[in-house]
Specification:
Blueprint lengths: L12 H10 L14 H16 L3
């Protein structure tokens, strides 16, 4: 399996966010592999906000 950007992978992130919220999870995870740290963090925050409908 190869690491890819969050929106390119096979994970249904909308479902993941629903599920972790349902069990009360309130942590953080760092999904970085294909870009530098700062670029990955910004990219993934923007992607997650988009997936969650946050402007």
């Amino acid at each position: 399996m190869e690491w890819v950007l969050v929106e390119k992978g096979v994970v249904d992130w909308t479902q993941v966010f629903f599920d972790v919220k349902a069990v009360g999870y309130d942590g953080i995870e760092d999904f970085k592999r294909s870009k530098g740290t700062k670029e990955s963090i910004k990219h993934n925050i923007d992607t997650v906000k988009h997936l969650k409908g946050v402007k």
